[in-house]
Amino acid sequence: MEPILLLGIPGGPEWIIILIIIVLLFGGKKLPGLMKGLGKGIKDFNDAKNDISNETEDKDEK
Questions:
Q1: Which one, of 47, 9, 6, 41, lies nearest residue 33 by Cα?
Q2: Residue 4: strand, helix, or coil
Q3: Alpha helices for the chain (secondary structure H)
Q4: Spatial distance between the Cα atoms of 33 and 26, rounded to a whole number of angstroms
Q5: Exposure string for 30-49, b = 16+ CB within 10 A, e = fewer
């Protein structure tokens, strides 16, 4: 079996550079609020995904 190459996905050093750019753009004071909003958005997305998954499972059981 050949390993799958994950081209285009940032590695460790790339993430550090991305974080430095984010801190420079938004500043240290706005960063916690930005991350809180991002976390809430991800949570809402996952909740909606789970709701849709549960609805399709319920329809499959009927």
A1: 41
A2: coil
A3: 12-61
A4: 10
A5: eeeeeeeeeeeeeeeeeeee
10-20 pLDDT per residue, tens? 788 998 999 89
| Cα gap 29→31, rounded to integer Å | 6
By residue count, the chain amounts to: 62
Whole-angstrom distance, CA of residue 55 vs CA of residue 43: 18
**pTM > 0.70: yes or no:** no
Model confidence at 49, in pLDDT bands (50, 70, 90)? very high
φ, ψ of residue 56 in degrees (nearest 5): -70, -35
